[in-house]
């Protein structure tokens, strides 16, 4: 986060600016061990699944199969639903059959209810059931005890679900020491004082106790737990969790879900952005799982599985002749463990195994763990890589086709000071014969960080400035963040407060936290009325001084809350419909992006394509515009990591990706700056950006030789603009990433992957 050096002591600031290498403060962010549900789930060892599929409960609808699963320890029933969707996609959903409170099922990500094929029972045996999933030759084998699903194409096993027995569904329960329980236990005690007969065991206790795993042989009646054994031992933190100075009240207790997937024959897995890591995911044994939790991470490091600003829970697996995707539709905090039976083996070791006629078939294990919600998984069955990205595109939409200007070069910094500065920079590009399409204004342009306004001293005539730029066929982007200054004199704040459109605390007050403007409130973008209101703010008469040439940058939309746990919103904050923030955290940023893009479409009467850059994202964000890799650093490692990061974004549908050219923190040397331009020219979103405290770095401040190299890189970008535009068109139509190796298939040659 940019948060900036402004919040740092001067000595530390200077030390950074003078080139000491930057490091994230890991202590600000949870490890799996510090995240209660991740710790609980990771402690569960493979091979002991308590779940049984009640095959006799199967109900076959025209296109869905439903049956019950039961946890044989707690006896809590779950509902399993299976669909064979058209175009080689299988969906499986697991939820509580009788939940105490409904669980959040992520809305607004799928384009609609995907069409399903007819399911048929094709085999039944002692303890197994076979279903065929439509015309693709895919079959599902359901094993009763322990519950397991095997997905086959003809005779080939593609994927097994719960083969390691790591299905977890923390059913909702009442808190044992809740007030109601305390009252009832006091009442029981009073009653017992007047009772003559010895108290009896509560009904059902004995039977249930016999089935519990803790009920070892030889236990006596007096050793039996006094609580009904249907409720597992609650570990500390299950109903309240503290991290640093923040306590999460967790009023609904533990609600996490998890499931494992075995992928036989696969050694290469990708996806689940955003992480500053290699393209190919690594085995996580012995370290933390990859974390998906949208966070504003100050000075992030490279080559770690730590969470960053955005999350797409889509993993891709590839082997010769087969690619698969696993799309885990859950917007809560999620961790993903990757295991591999070939991890650590050298090529030579594998060869030796092979020559000795042995060696296991390579296999990758993927385990998803989410803090709440339901298990809703789409298995994208390819078979080719382009089929998988097209299948994902059919489910969640493809990259919005960007306006052509936005594929050109963007010049940004925090901040261009005033109208004169803007004009001088624009002239600089003209004079040095450097192509440029867009100039950017960061948070200092607004009046006291009140978004949708202009600082009256620095930007007294924004319309005139925009018209001058437009006359030269240039555009501008201004930043509009989703934290709103708490200030009764600020129209945006007073209207949102009056309409009750802010996120609430657990006690029902407007949620407030600290961000750039100081005390800030957070619009509840999950509420359609809020999005409607926000979209209307982009009308030319609402956003005063704006014109057709002004576009938008949504930053800090994880959401970033400087005073919150892990620099984000408290998980027990409340949203529209009574949902807790924990249930939907990762989709908040998508809603900000969506409302802004809709506002831009609306302001032109549906005539012009929008351009909106967002820092946070989720599955489906590709429908609303561009994303970037946040606050990187001006060093070679960050330049290097920008390539796998954008490749990984692209695999997960977010094709319009870029990294701050030159690096956000610190000052790049001339060689690094030139190399970054050369690399950035070949990345989909091409913008130079820099921190407030860095030295100015417009290209003409370089030596003439270096300037010439930057000019050549910029011109190469513009020479290839038609290629970029065509690549975006194919991406928009078919979901095929823009940044990739190798040529795309002729789009007409495979009509099945044609999207619209
Ligand atoms: C954080 C963003 O990541 C950065 O690009 C921006 O300059 C600062 N916020 C200030 O708005």
Topology (SSEs and partners):
Blueprint: H1 10-17, H2 36-43, E1 51-60, E2 65-71, E3 77-85, E4 89-96, E5 119-125, E6 128-133, E7 138-143, E8 148-153, E9 156-161, E10 168-169, H3 179-194, H4 205-211, E11 241-243, E12 246-248, E13 257-264, E14 268-271, E15 290-292, E16 314-319, E17 322-328, E18 334-340, H5 347-355, E19 363-370, E20 375-380, H6 385-396, E21 409-411, H7 419-431, E22 438-441, H8 462-471, E23 475-479, E24 484-485, H9 491-499, E25 512-515, E26 518-521, H10 528-536, E27 550-554, H11 581-584, H12 588-603, E28 612-614, E29 626-628, H13 636-651, E30 657-658, H14 670-680, E31 686-688, H15 704-719, H16 721-734
Parallel strand pairs: 21-22, 21-31, 22-23, 23-27, 27-28, 28-29, 29-30
Antiparallel strand pairs: 1-2, 2-3, 3-4, 4-20, 5-6, 6-7, 7-8, 8-9, 9-13, 10-13, 11-12, 13-19, 14-16, 15-18, 16-17, 17-20, 18-19, 24-26, 25-26
The protein binds 1-deoxynojirimycin.
CATH superfamily of the largest domain: Glycosidases
The shape, in one word, is globular
The low-confidence runs, each spanning 5 or more residues with pLDDT under 50, are: 1-19, 196-230, 747-756
> How much helicity do the residues have?
10-25%
What profile does the largest beta sheet have? Answer: 10 strands, antiparallel
Strand residues, percent:
15-25%
């Amino acid at each position: 986060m940019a948060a900036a050096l402004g919040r740092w002591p001067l000595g530390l600031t200077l030390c950074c600016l003078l080139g000491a290498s930057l490091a994230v403060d890991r202590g600000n962010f949870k490890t799996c061990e510090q995240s209660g549900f991740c710790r609980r789930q990771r402690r569960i060892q493979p091979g002991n699944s308590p779940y049984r599929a009640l095959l006799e409960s199967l109900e076959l609808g025209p296109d869905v199969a439903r049956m019950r699963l039961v946890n044989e320890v707690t006896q809590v029933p779950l509902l399993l639903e299976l669909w064979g969707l058209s175009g080689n996609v299988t969906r499986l959903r697991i939820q509580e059959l009788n939940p105490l409170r409904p669980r959040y099922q992520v809305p607004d990500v799928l384009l609609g209810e995907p069409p399903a094929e007819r399911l048929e029972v094709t085999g039944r045996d002692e303890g197994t059931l076979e279903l065929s999933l439509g015309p693709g030759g895919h079959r599902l084998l359901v094993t009763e005890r322990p519950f397991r699903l095997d997905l086959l194409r003809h005779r080939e096993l593609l994927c097994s679900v719960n083969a390691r027995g790591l299905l977890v569904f923390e059913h909702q329960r009442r808190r044992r020491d809740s007030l109601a329980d305390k009252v009832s236990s006091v009442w029981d005690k009073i009653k017992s004082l007047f009772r003559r007969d010895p108290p009896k065991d509560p009904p059902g206790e004995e039977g249930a106790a016999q089935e519990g795993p803790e009920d070892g042989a030889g236990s006596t009646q007096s050793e039996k737990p006094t609580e009904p054994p249907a409720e597992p031992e609650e570990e500390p933190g299950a109903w309240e969790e503290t991290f640093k100075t923040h306590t999460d009240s967790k009023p609904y207790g533990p609600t996490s879900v998890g499931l494992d997937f075995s992928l036989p024959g696969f050694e290469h897995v990708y996806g689940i952005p955003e992480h500053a890591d290699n393209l190919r995911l690594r085995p996580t044994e012995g370290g933390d799982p990859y974390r998906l939790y949208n966070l504003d991470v100050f000075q992030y490091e490279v080559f770690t599985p730590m969470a960053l600003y955005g999350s797409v829970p889509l993993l891709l697996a590839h082997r010769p002749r087969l690619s698969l995707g696993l799309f885990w539709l859950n917007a809560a905090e999620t961790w993903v463990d990757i295991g591999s039976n070939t991890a650590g083996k050298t090529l030579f070791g594998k060869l030796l195994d092979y020559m000795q006629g042995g060696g296991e078939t390579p296999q990758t294990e993927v385990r998803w763990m989410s803090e709440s919600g339901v298990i809703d998984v789409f298995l994208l069955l390819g078979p080719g890589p382009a089929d998988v990205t097209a299948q994902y595109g059919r489910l969640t939409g493809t990259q919005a086709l960007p306006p052509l200007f936005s594929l050109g070069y963007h010049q940004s910094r925090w901040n261009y000071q005033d109208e004169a500065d803007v004009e001088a920079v624009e002239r600089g590009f003209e004079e040095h014969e450097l192509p440029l399409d867009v100039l950017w204004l960061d948070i200092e342009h607004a009046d006291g960080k009140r978004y949708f306004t202009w600082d009256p001293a620095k930007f007294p005539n924004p319309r005139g400035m925009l018209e001058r730029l437009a006359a030269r066929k240039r555009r501008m982007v201004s930043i509009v963040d989703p934290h709103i200054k708490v200030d009764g004199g600020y129209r945006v704040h007073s209207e949102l407060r009056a309409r009750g459109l802010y996120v609430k605390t657990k006690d029902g007050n407007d949620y407030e936290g600290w961000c750039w403007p100081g005390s800030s409130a957070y619009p509840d973008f999950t509420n359609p009325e809020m999005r409607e209101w926000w979209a209307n703010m982009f009308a030319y008469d609402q956003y005063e001084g704006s014109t057709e040439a002004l576009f938008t940058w949504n930053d800090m939309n994880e959401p970033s809350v400087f005073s919150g746990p892990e620099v984000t919103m408290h998980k027990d904050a409340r949203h529209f419909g009574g949902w807790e923030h924990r249930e939907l955290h990762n989709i908040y940023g998508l809603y900000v992006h969506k409302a802004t893009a809709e506002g831009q479409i609306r302001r032109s009467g549906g005539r012009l394509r929008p351009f909106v850059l967002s820092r946070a994202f989720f599955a489906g964000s590709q429908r609303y515009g561009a994303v970037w890799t946040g606050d990187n650093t001006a060093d070679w490692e960050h330049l290097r990591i920008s390539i796998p990061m954008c490749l990984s974004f692209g695999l997960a549908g977010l094709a319009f990706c870029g990294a701050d050219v030159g690096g956000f923190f610190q000052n790049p040397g001339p060689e690094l700056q030139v190399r970054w331009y050369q690399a950035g020219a070949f990345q989909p979103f091409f913008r130079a950006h820099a921190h407030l405290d860095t030295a100015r770095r417009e290209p003409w401040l370089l030596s003439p030789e270096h300037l010439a190299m930057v000019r050549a890189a910029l011109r190469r970008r513009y020479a290839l603009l038609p290629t970029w535009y065509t690549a975006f068109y194919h991406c928009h139509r078919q979901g095929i990433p823009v940044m990739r190796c190798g040529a795309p298939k002729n789009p007409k040659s495979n009509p099945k992957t044609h999207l619209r």
